[in-house]
UniProtKB/TrEMBL annotation:
This is Phosphate ABC transporter substrate-binding protein PstS. The chain crosses the membrane at residues 527-547. Residues 453-477 have a biased composition (Gly residues). Gene3D superfamilies: Periplasmic binding protein-like II. InterPro entries: PBP_domain, Phosphate-bind_PstS. It comes from Nocardioides daphniae. Residues 49-362 form the PBP domain.
């Protein structure tokens, strides 16, 4: 083969340069630099710059794992290497205490002693809790009538507690029929699926049962309080981890089964969940909206001297009378090392952890809703920032400059008005057919979309029963505020209802939902530059190949 001539080399170089410049122009400087313009973080390793990153490792909650793994994928392009292994909250706390990991995630704080009398504490390792994501513990199930999967099952808290304490054992039980307004289900044995490992999800479920249905839970458990290890009895099936539980319930042998997982798991599998009866008299599922409304009633330990600082008290969440509130709403904690002499930590690791948390608490929260979670509200983000600051207190070499809630791209608040909870404002009221004695609604659950009289639910579902359409505001897109309007002046930020029939601008505002997205400035068409690059390649590569092959010499030699 002939060596390419200067002319062919020049053609190739110019073609490649043109390709690179065009792709760079479309992708933008941020893409070339390998950083997103909104995060403000990156692995700048110039002399005197921020510390270089080092890989960090964590383990724990499977309840939180779906969104955590997404965040890990997101920050990889920024140079941050983070690994996370589920395994359950109990294992995550244990790994952190034994210095196996750099951080843990758990739905409950260290209890001191576990159910078996074994130590369950940090083992002397200095740490802090901080909230990372909110969500709802969902009850997913497989129940078929003939070959059709029931997708709109409703159950009261008492009925659920009776199912998970073996008091109700068949799907044709009168209590289930009553919850579904007279709709009867086949005679089929109920198989409760519970976690076989130490699970924060189990702890959340049993904390709720102990608080709300103690007369059922305590005789079954043998004492008061919660447990991370569900006492498996009767027909119950044990599964380790949320994935295995979800796979069993949705599998070929799962008909008749019901279990508990974070809402992300059935949502990702497009599988139905139970609508749970709240104290407002409505059956609701754990969408990001219903969780956000419920958690406005959460009480947080604000004693900074307490070992349980920032841990949650959920009694008022369970008993919220808001029609939209999902009773089993809560959030997960990250356990981070705060000791200046922590044996696993270095400046680079602390920097990585701090920047990973900044992304997770701000930009990453925009992905919470679409992935089956609910974004953290302002007060929890502010408290978490305080805890992140302890990384710098332990090591002044850590750079946490330029970090504030006013610059935090979180969907529940804006830097210009930190008093508003945007998600609670737009949370829709439930459909009339979700009320006790009405319906049940025809819309499917497990879609991430609220069931509303305005036609919420998955595309193609049967329309909601029992109510008319909610006006969308004189032609405005549902959930959007017309230009010049001020949603704060016409919508109650707690209930989401129009106050006194108020009009915003010239258009009436209705509490219809707005789908939150993970879009960032400059990301409206994330694949546009790739499509253009492929087109350019199709045009230019044949010429490059021809230039590479070269032309025959005068003597015919190649």
């Amino acid at each position: 083969m002939t060596t390419p001539t200067p002319r062919t080399r020049s053609l190739a170089a110019r073609a490649l340069l043109t390709l690179g410049l065009l792709v760079g122009a479309v992708a933008g400087p941020a893409a070339i630099a390998g950083a997103t313009p909104t995060t403000g973080i990156g692995n700048d390793q110039r002399p005197g710059a921020r510390p270089a990153y080092a890989q960090i490792e964590g383990s724990g909650s499977t309840w939180s794992e779906v969104i955590v793994q997404q965040w890990i994928s997101d920050v990889d392009s920024l140079g941050m290497k983070v690994t996370y292994n589920g395994g359950g909250s109990s294992q995550g706390r244990k790994n952190f205490a034994q210095n196996v990991t750099d951080f843990g995630i758990s739905e409950i704080p260290y209890p001191g002693v576990d159910e078996f009398g074994n130590a369950d504490n940090a083992g002397g390792r200095e740490f802090a809790y901080l909230p990372v994501v909110a969500g709802g513990t969902a009850f997913t199930y497989q129940l078929k009538i003939g070959n059709e999967l029931v997708r709109n099952l409703r159950l009261s808290g008492e009925t659920l507690a009776k199912i998970f304490t073996n008091r109700i054992t068949n799907w044709n039980d009168p209590a289930i029929t009553k919850d579904n307004n007279g709709r009867k289900f086949p005679s089929l044995a109920i198989t409760p699926v519970v976690r076989s490992d130490g699970s924060g999800t189990t702890a959340q479920l049993t904390t709720w049962m102990d608080a709300e249905h103690a007369g059922l839970w305590r005789p079954f458990f043998g004492r008061s309080g919660y447990t991370s290890y569900f006492p498996k009895k009767g027909r119950m099936i044990g599964q380790a981890g949320s994935d295995q539980m979800m796979n069993y319930i949705s599998g070929f042998a799962g008909n008749g089964s019901i279990g508990y997982v974070e809402y992300a798991y059935p949502l990702n599998k497009k599988y139905p969940v139970v609508k749970v009866l709240n104290k407002g008299g409505y059956f609701v599922e754990p969408t990001q909206y219903n969780v956000a409304v419920a958690l406005t009633k959460a009480r947080i330990n604000q004693d900074r001297k307490s070992k349980d600082y920032l841990t949650q008290i959920l009694t008022d969440v369970y008993r919220s009378t808001d029609k939209r509130a999902y009773p089993l709403s809560s959030y997960s904690y990250m356990i981070i090392p705060t000791g200046s002499k922590d044996q696993r930590m270095t400046t680079s690791k602390r920097q990585t952890l701090g920047d990973f948390l900044y992304y997770s608490l701000c930009e990453g929260q925009s992905k919470a809703g679409p992935y089956g979670y609910s974004p953290l509200p302002l007060n929890l983000v502010q408290a978490a920032f305080t805890q992140v600051g302890r990384l710098q207190q332990a090591d002044p070499g850590v750079d946490l400059s330029n970090r504030s809630v006013s610059k935090c791209n979180n969907p529940t608040f804006t830097g210009s008005d930190l008093k508003r909870n945007k998600l609670a404002e737009i949370a829709p009221q439930p459909a009339a057919c979700d009320a006790v004695g009405q319906g049940p609604c025809g819309t499917a659950t497990g879609t991430g979309k609220p069931s509303t009289d305005g036609g919420g639910g998955a595309s193609g579902d049967a329309p909601s029963q029992g109510g008319g359409n909610v006006p969308s505001g004189g032609g405005a897109t549902p959930g959007e505020v017309p230009a010049g309007g001020d949603v704060g002046s016409g919508v109650d930020p707690t209930t989401g209802e129009v106050v006194g029939g108020a009009v915003v601008g010239d258009v009436a505002v209705s509490a219809t939902p707005t789908e939150l997205t993970a879009a960032r400035p400059g990301d409206a068409t994330p694949f546009a530059w790739l499509a253009l690059a492929q087109l350019l390649a199709l045009v230019l590569l044949p010429g490059l190949l021809l230039a590479r092959r070269g032309r025959p010499s005068a003597g015919g030699r190649r």
